């Protein structure tokens, strides 16, 4: 449906020039979203996919095994959309204080994303409301160090920003002036908590994401916070027990369509086409995450069965296998610490896993060697190839 522009233009002075900024109208859209026809079907399909994903998460013997690395995969993907070149293995190495082969700012940015996500989920589980205060806290963690740390972490902007171009005057899109940010974000907060407009939760998440990106309330980090907002909404509402749904892979794979549809909402008010794209992303991403969980469960079981017949060495090797399931890149020192095995015993057990083709040595060094659970990391890294 084409409603026309979903806001108003306001002329403001930025630097030495006058620019037209776009101030979005509060949500929900007027007239209301039309769920008849294809959009209703897309919503039902997405809800069913989310249910399957939540069901799979309850079947995992230890959800934290998948969550640890899955959260990091999302951090890599979301940061890649912003132009970083860090990979999942780079991040895991960085967290072990091993120097990655990418610019340090890139991997620090991804590491900050993990910390921001963890902070937000912890606060929600403590009963803190999904609010502008929490959004600012998440932003403060996201920009706490490295690139962007000089861009007012945790504070709504007090100057004009823009998207595309070299200045507001030649930008592709100019968000609301700084004087309108507080009111726009207050309206968005009210929409997040509205219970009387009849909107399904997934539609609310899709609408809120566009509105946040349009307001662009921070000087930096808006895209990453806007993508986190989707997951926080679903977890806060109890639709997902664990944060296993992330749309960054869908947005990365369809980047041009993603940006075109955001612009189309602003210019034409076509929320339905955007929501169809968003809901399809939920379906594809949820089904993909559920399939990944099943593949990993099968792989872990298969590898365990390969270890068990190995006689006296099997016990120690199974303990090392469990450690690699929780951290797919390990040093022998950390392996010894996590398993309670002596260093020689951990080394011997890891050598057995290498012989079986389960683990692989990464460094080629004789000392301070690192080992990777190859197939595990390969499955989790699918789609994160920097390009």
The share of residues in extended strands comes to 5-15%
Strand element count: 5
Q: What is the gyration radius calculated from CA atoms? A: 23 Å
- Give the name of the CATH architecture of the largest domain: Orthogonal Bundle
Uncertain segments? none
Shape by Cα distribution: globular
What would the CATH topology of the largest domain be? Answer: Fic-like fold
The total domain count is 2
Task: Name the helix and strand elements from N-terminus to C-terminus, one letter apiece.
Answer: EEHHHHHHHHHHHHEHHEEH
Brief overview, please?
By secondary structure, this protein is mainly α. Helices cover 58% and strands 7% of the residues. It has two domains: 7-292, Fido-like domain (Fic-like fold); 308-380, Orthogonal Bundle (Arc Repressor Mutant, subunit A).
Model description:
Strand 1 and strand 2 form a beta hairpin. The chain has 387 residues and is mainly alpha-helical. It is globular. It has 2 domains: 286 residues, Fic-like fold (Orthogonal Bundle), CATH 1.10.3290.10; 73 residues, Winged helix-like DNA-binding domain superfamily/Winged helix DNA-binding domain (Arc Repressor Mutant, subunit A), CATH 1.10.10.10. The chain has 15 helices and 5 strands. Helix 10 runs antiparallel to helix 11. The strands form 2 sheets. The chain has a 3-stranded antiparallel sheet, with helices on both faces. Strands 1-2 form a two-stranded antiparallel ribbon. The longest helix has 37 residues.
Keywords:
387 residues; mainly alpha; Fic-like fold; Arc Repressor Mutant, subunit A; 2 domains; 3-stranded antiparallel beta sheet; two-stranded antiparallel ribbon; 15 helices; 58% helix; 7% strand; globular
């Amino acid at each position: 449906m084409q409603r026309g522009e979903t806001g108003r233009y306001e002329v403001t002075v930025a630097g030495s020039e006058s620019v037209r900024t776009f101030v979005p109208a509060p949500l929900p859209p007027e007239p209301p979203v039309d769920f008849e026809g294809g959009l209703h079907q897309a919503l039902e399909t997405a809800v069913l996919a989310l249910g399957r994903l939540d069901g799979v998460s309850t079947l995992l013997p230890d959800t934290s095994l998948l969550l640890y690395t899955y959260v990091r995969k999302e951090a890599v993907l979301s940061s890649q959309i912003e132009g970083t070149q860090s990979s999942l293995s780079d991040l895991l190495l960085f967290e072990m204080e091993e120097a990655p082969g990418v610019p340090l700012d890139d991997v620090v940015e991804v590491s900050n994303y993990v910390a921001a996500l963890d902070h937000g989920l912890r606060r929600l589980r403590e009963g803190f409301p999904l609010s502008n205060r929490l959004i600012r806290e998440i932003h403060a963690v996201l920009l706490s160090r490295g690139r962007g740390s000089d861009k007012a972490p945790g504070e709504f902007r007090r100057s004009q920003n823009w998207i595309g171009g070299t200045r507001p005057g030649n930008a592709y899109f100019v968000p609301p002036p700084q004087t309108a940010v507080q009111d726009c974000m207050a309206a968005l907060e009210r929409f997040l908590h509205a219970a009387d407009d009849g909107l399904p939760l997934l539609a609310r998440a899709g609408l809120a994401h566009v509105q946040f990106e349009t307001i662009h309330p921070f000087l930096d980090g808006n895209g990453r916070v806007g993508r986190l907002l989707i997951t926080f909404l679903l977890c806060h509402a109890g639709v997902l027990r664990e944060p296993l749904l992330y749309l960054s892979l869908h947005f990365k794979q369809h980047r041009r369509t993603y940006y075109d549809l955001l612009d189309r909402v602003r210019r034409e008010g076509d929320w339905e086409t955007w929501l169809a794209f968003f809901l399809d992303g939920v379906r594809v991403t949820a089904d993909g995450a559920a399939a990944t969980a099943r593949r990993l469960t099968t792989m872990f079981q298969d590898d365990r069965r390969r270890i068990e017949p190995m006689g006296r060495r099997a016990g120690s090797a199974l303990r090392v296998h469990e450690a690699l399931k929780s951290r797919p890149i390990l040093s022998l020192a950390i392996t010894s610490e996590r398993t309670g095995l002596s260093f020689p015993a951990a080394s011997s057990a890891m050598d057995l896993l290498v012989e079986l083709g389960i683990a692989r040595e990464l460094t080629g060094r004789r000392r301070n060697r690192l080992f990777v659970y190859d197939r595990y990391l390969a499955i989790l890294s699918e789609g994160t190839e920097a390009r």
